[in-house]
From TrEMBL:
InterPro entries: DIOX_N, IPNS-like_FE2OG_OXY, IPNS-like_sf, Oxoglu/Fe-dep_dioxygenase_dom, Plant_2OG-oxidoreductases. Pfam families: 2OG-FeII_Oxy, DIOX_N. Signal peptide: none annotated. Residues 206-305 form the Fe2OG dioxygenase domain. This is Fe2OG dioxygenase domain-containing protein. Keywords: Iron, Metal-binding, Oxidoreductase, Vitamin C. Belongs to the iron/ascorbate-dependent oxidoreductase family. GO terms for molecular function: L-ascorbic acid binding; metal ion binding; oxidoreductase activity. It comes from Acacia crassicarpa (northern wattle).
C-alpha cells in the first residue's frame, strides 16, 4: 500500500492486521519532532508529583492539611499527578483493562455498530484516527477509541463483550468517588470549603465520560502521534493504562514521560478546573506517542460539571479577586471546540477569557 494513497481506515487495528508490511498513509504523518524526547525531560519525569490518597483522607488534621497543600502544589505546578493508596481494588483495575481490551478485539462489524451518524455531542461513539477540525481536518492519529457518557445515565454503557457492562459500571462508580474526594481537597487547597467546587459545578449530577483508547504498534512511530498536543475538557480526569507507556506532558517547555507506579492512577486537571479556580490551576498540554512493538491501552474517566449548567470562577474566590473567565456550559465549550481554533486562540477555553 503506497504512502499517501486514498485509504479508508475504519480501524487502525484491523488495517494493520490486514496489511503484512504497511506503509503509513501520508495523512498520518503528524509528528513534527524528531524523537519526541527533549534534553532534560528524563530528569523532569522523576519529579512528577505523587499524591498519597490515604493521607488526603486521614482523620488527623495535620496529616490531612499537609496532603491538601501537596495536592494544591501538584495542581499548580504540573496539572498532572500520580495517585497511590487510592483504595480501588487492583483486581477491578485489571479487569477493567481486560474488558476494554476485549472490546477492541471484537470483530470490526460489531464495533461499527457504535459508530452511528455524526453528532458533535454523542452519548456513545466508536471511531478511529481523525479528531475534530480544531486539530486539523486532514490530520489522522494512530488510535482506535470508544467514548461514552456513563453518568448520570448508564444506558450508554455497552453490553458487549460479555461482562463489559458490569465491570465498567463498577469502575465508573469507584472513579467517581476518587474524583469527588480529590475535588474536596482541591477546593480546600484554594482556601474554599471542601464542598464549594462540587456545589458550584453541580458535580454530583455532572457528567462522567469514559474513553477507551487503543494505540496499536506502529511500523513508523517517528512519523505519527497517537493523540496530538491538547488540553482536556472536564474538572478532573483519571487514567489507567496497561504496562505500555506513551503519555507525555508539556512541562517547563519539554515533553515529559508520565510513567505510573504499580496500582496507581494518573490524574490531570481540565479546562473546567482552570475556570473554577480562576486560572490558578491550569489545564495542561499533553499528547500520546506510539511505539513499534506493543499496543498501548488506556482508559480515561473524565469528570465534569452538569452539562447544561453555566459555570465560572468559584464565587468564594471572587470575594478578593476579579474573574478571569465568563460563564459557559460544557456543551458551549465542546461546540466551540468543534469549530476549530486560530493561532491567536490555541485553546477553545480562550474564547471565554475576559479581556483576552
Amino acid at each position: 500500500m503506497a504512502s499517501g494513497g486514498d485509504v479508508d481506515v475504519s480501524s487502525v487495528k484491523s488495517w494493520l492486521e490486514s496489511n503484512a508490511a504497511p506503509l503509513i498513509p501520508s495523512y498520518y504523518h503528524t509528528r513534527t519532532d524528531s524523537n519526541g524526547r527533549d534534553d532534560g525531560a528524563h530528569e523532569l519525569a522523576a519529579l512528577v508529583p505523587v499524591i498519597d490518597f490515604s493521607l488526603l483522607t486521614s482523620d488527623d488534621p495535620q496529616t490531612h492539611a499537609a496532603a491538601v497543600r501537596q495536592l494544591g502544589q501538584a495542581c499548580q505546578d504540573w496539572g498532572f499527578f500520580i495517585v497511590t493508596n487510592h483504595g480501588v481494588s487492583e483486581n477491578l483495575l485489571e479487569d477493567t483493562l481486560e474488558k476494554c481490551s476485549d472490546f477492541h478485539n471484537l470483530p470490526l462489524e460489531e464495533k461499527k455498530k457504535f459508530c452511528g451518524s455524526y453528532d458533535p455531542l454523542p452519548t456513545i461513539k466508536y471511531a478511529t484516527s481523525a479528531l475534530p477540525r480544531s486539530v486539523g481536518e486532514d490530520d489522522h492519529y494512530w488510535i482506535d477509541h470508544l467514548k461514552f457518557f456513563n453518568y448520570p445515565n448508564q444506558c450508554n454503557t455497552p453490553h458487549k463483550p460479555p461482562g463489559f457492562y458490569e465491570t465498567a459500571t463498577e469502575f465508573c462508580k469507584e472513579m467517581r468517588g476518587v474524583a469527588r474526594t480529590l475535588l474536596e481537597g482541591i477546593s480546600e487547597s484554594l482556601g474554599l470549603k471542601p464542598g464549594d467546587i462540587i456545589e458550584h459545578s453541580a458535580f454530583d449530577v455532572g457528567y462522567q465520560k469514559i474513553q477507551i483508547n487503543l494505540y496499536p504498534p506502529c511500523p513508523q512511530p517517528d512519523l505519527v502521534l497517537g493523540l496530538p498536543a491538547h488540553c482536556d475538557n472536564g474538572i478532573v480526569n483519571i487514567l489507567i493504562q496497561n504496562g505500555v507507556c506513551g503519555l507525555q506532558v508539556k512541562h517547563a517547555g519539554k515533553w515529559v514521560d508520565i510513567t505510573p507506579l504499580p496500582n496507581s492512577l494518573i490524574v490531570n486537571t481540565g479546562d473546567d478546573l482552570e475556570v473554577l479556580s480562576n486560572g490558578k490551576y491550569k489545564s495542561i498540554w499533553h499528547r500520546a506517542v506510539v511505539n513499534e512493538k506493543e499496543s498501548r491501552l488506556s482508559v480515561v474517566a473524565a469528570h465534569g460539571p452538569q452539562r447544561d449548567k453555566e459555570i465560572g470562577p468559584a464565587p468564594g474566590l471572587l470575594e478578593k479577586e476579579k474573574p478571569l473567565f465568563k460563564g459557559y456550559t460544557y456543551d458551549d465549550l465542546v461546540r466551540f471546540q468543534l469549530k476549530g481554533v486560530s493561532p491567536d486562540m490555541p485553546r477553545p477555553l480562550d474564547a471565554f477569557r475576559i479581556n483576552n
